[in-house]
Write a structure and sequence with these properties.
This protein is elongated. The chain contains two helices and eight strands. The protein is α+β, with helices and mostly antiparallel strands. The chain starts with a helix and ends with a strand. β4 and β5 form a beta hairpin. The protein has two domains: 49 residues; 119 residues, At5g01610-like (at5g01610, DUF538 DOMAIN, Roll), CATH 2.30.240.10. 30% of the residues lie in helices and 38% in strands.
Length: 176
């Protein structure tokens, strides 16, 4: 009986130890990502990159300048590839726009920026009929178009462009 109790106890301790190591590994990984993001922002500032504001860059590409919040930490743009990474101030945050729509952001949003659209989006969600859905792309048909299209899994919704013209302050939320 003692051997069985000993084996069960040792199994339980081993399982708990693996769980704790997994938690520690996850914590170290997220800390490393946070430090990496802040270091990239600092290096870009020291190099003099990102002289233009993000909203100006978006407008140059015919994307409404208020798609991202006004209180971003920094952004990185690889102009040759069109890769845009936006670093936000919170682990997850959201913005309520003038048309009563809400967009939620992860701490880092990655996408491809091209004329009139953001594609291959990662880190952005919007609420569609009480359900949060991942945004795959955001686009404007023409320079004079008065609609912004949010493409999500299976649903495309159009919203008034004027609601997204000016960046708004993001607020912290619990879950992305």
């Amino acid at each position: 009986m003692e051997k069985v109790v000993s084996k069960v106890g040792s199994f339980w301790i081993s399982k708990k130890a693996k769980q704790e190591f997994s938690n520690i590994t996850h914590d170290l990984s997220s800390l490393s990502n946070s430090v990496e993001d802040k270091a990239k922002c600092l290096i870009n500032k020291l190099k003099g990159k990102n002289e233009k504001g993000l909203s100006d860059i978006l407008r140059e590409h015919n994307v409404p300048g208020g798609i991202f919040p006004s209180n971003i930490k920094c952004y990185e743009l690889d102009e040759a590839k069109g890769k845009l990474t936006v670093h936000l101030p919170y682990p997850s945050c959201e913005v309520c726009f003038k048309d009563s729509s809400t967009v939620r952001y992860a701490s880092r949003v990655k996408c491809t920026l091209s004329r009139g659209k953001l594609t291959v989006l990662d880190g952005m969600k919007t609420k569609v009929v009480l359900v949060w859905v991942k945004v795959n792309s955001v686009g404007v048909e023409t320079r004079k178009s008065d609609k912004v299209w949010f493409a999500t899994s299976g649903v495309n919704t159009s919203r008034p462009r004027e609601a997204y013209d000016m960046p708004r302050q993001a607020i912290r939320v619990e879950d992305f």
